[in-house]
Amino acid sequence: MPSSRRIVNIALIGFMGTGKTSVGRLVADQLRFNYLDTDEMIQSATGKTIAEIFFANGEPAFRALEENVCQELAAKNQTVISAGGGLPVAPQNMASLKTHALVVCLWASPAKIWERVKNQTHRPLLHDPDPQKKIRDLLAAREPFYKQADILLNTESRSLREVAQQVIHQFRLQSDGR
Ligand code: S3P
Which domains does the chain carry? Predict the structure, then answer.
């Protein structure tokens, strides 16, 4: 772990439907940390839903907002952050997260992701004629970025509670001010 890092937060990254929100809330409760979700930060800053931003302003505008909230996170302490699925694709976002957080990637296969998201409608990137192919393609394109996380946790055969325990265990091993 480079000494310039100050690991005081936990950032959960990974594809949509890998459990970042549920696991993040559990981890925050157990550690008595604050919980922040980058999508919620963008929604409260703009007063618009993520889908509205995508459709009215386009994905590049959303990515710019995402980068802004990512910069704000560097000032936080004792916070569990759930990052939008595409956030770590921008190298400056991943670099920023790593200055203050243990970056944990939650992983699942395209089939498992589809099972978890197929009845949800709020994610604009899945409003696609072939959402299963979209998941496979996006996940393949993002894999090299996700794999830059400090810890990669497969969520397929673990309960949310078990995943949360693993996250906490890793944080206790690697954080500053244990
Ligand atoms: C996105 C994931 C979403 C949200 C937006 C774009 C992505 O967040 O940021 O719809 O690019 O994968 P979740 O991963 O929390 O669903």
Answer: 9-174 (3.40.50.300)
Query: Contact at 8 Å (CB) between 150 and 102?
Result: yes
Greater confidence (124 vs 12) lies with 12
Q: For the chain, give the percent of residues with pLDDT over 90.
A: 90
Atom number of ligand 1 nearest to Cα 66: 9
Q: Could you tell me the CA-to-CA distances from 30 to 24, 26, 102, 110, 148 in Å, in that order?
A: 10, 6, 16, 29, 26
Q: Which amino acid is at 64?
A: A
Q: Is the CB of 131 under 6 A from ligand 1?
A: no
Average pLDDT over residues 79-92: 98
Query: Sheet holding 9-14: strands in order across?
Result: 34-37, 79-82, 9-14, 101-107, 151-154
Check pocket membership of 51 for ligand 1, CB cut-off 6 A. Answer: no
- Average pLDDT on 33-55 reads 97
